Each structure stands twice: as C-alpha cells, then as structure tokens.
Amino acid sequence: MGGYGFTVPVLRLGDVLLVTLQGELHDGMAEQLQHDITSRIAQSRVTGVVIDISGVDIVDSFLGRVLAEIAAGAGLLAARTVLAGMRPAVAITLVELGLTLPGLRTALDVERAMELLAGDPRDGERSP
C-alpha cells in the first residue's frame, strides 16, 4: 500500500475480515487501508470486520477518524465493525481528544470480537 514498503494484512476468516494494525500507521497507509477494506467487503460480501489495534500505541485524531470512516463504510455495505485490543492508554487518549468512534463496537481481544460478530447483530450496539 502506498510507497511505504509493507502492507497492512487483511485476512478473511469465514464471513469476517481481520485487520491487524501494528505500530504507527502513516496517513497515506490509513487512507489506502480504508479503500482496501471497503473494496474487500464489497467483493467478498463479508458481514463483519475486526480491526485489531493491540499493537498500536497511539491513536491520533486522524487515525480515529479513519477508523470511524471504515466502520461507516462497512455499515453502508451491511458489515459490522468491531475494534479489538484497545490499550488503556489509547482509550484515555481517545476520550481526551473527544473521539467517540461512532459505528464502532469494541471488544477486549480478537476472540471476543469474533464472538460478538457471531452473536445477535444488535449485541453490543449503543442506544441512541
């Protein structure tokens, strides 16, 4: 993706795409990832996306917006998105930045995210 010399892996596990973010995700890579995920959802007709951020130390406002946009795009394509593995420091930073990440459900780890997607589509949704 882009000219950065490596790609973000997007794996298909049944009806779910698993995206594992590691380290810093540069702006161009984040935008390319957003495009790649929505394209894969449309092509493969998956019903869920798990974004594992356990390897991410910092989520800035740009990456937070990209994650929310990925979830919004996935939702328009009838796929649910779960953010897995958020570190406490990342959660605190998101709150401090005022980022609510609409459309994203969260899970402590990938296993729980997969369980959430396998359950009732309304599970984990926040009330308006």
Largest sheet: 5 strands, mixed
Q: What structural class is derived from the secondary structure elements?
A: alpha/beta
Number of helical segments with 4 or more residues: 4
Give me the Rg, rounded: 14 Å
Instruction: Using the coordinates above, name the CATH class of the domain at 10-85 and 97-105.
Output: Alpha Beta
The total strand number stands at 5
Q: What is the N-to-C order of secondary-structure elements (H for helix, E for strand)?
A: EEHEHEHEH
Percent range for β-strand residues: 15-25%
The percent range for helix content is 40-55%
The name of the CATH topology of the domain at 10-85 and 97-105 is Transcription Regulator spoIIAA
> How are the strands of the largest sheet arranged?
1-2-3-4-5
Global morphology: globular
Cα(first) to Cα(last) distance is 36 Å
CATH homology superfamily of the domain at 10-85 and 97-105: STAS domain
How confident is the prediction overall: mean pLDDT?
85
**Unreliable segments (pLDDT under 50, ≥5 consecutive)?**
1-5, 123-128
CATH A-level architecture of the domain at 10-85 and 97-105: 2-Layer Sandwich
Descriptive notes:
The protein contains 4 helices and 5 strands, in the order E-E-H-E-H-E-H-E-H. It has 128 residues and is of the alpha/beta class. It has a domain at 10-85 and 97-105: Transcription Regulator spoIIAA (2-Layer Sandwich), CATH 3.30.750. It has a 5-stranded mixed sheet with strand order 1-2-3-4-5. It is globular, with a radius of gyration of 14 Å. 30% of the residues are buried.
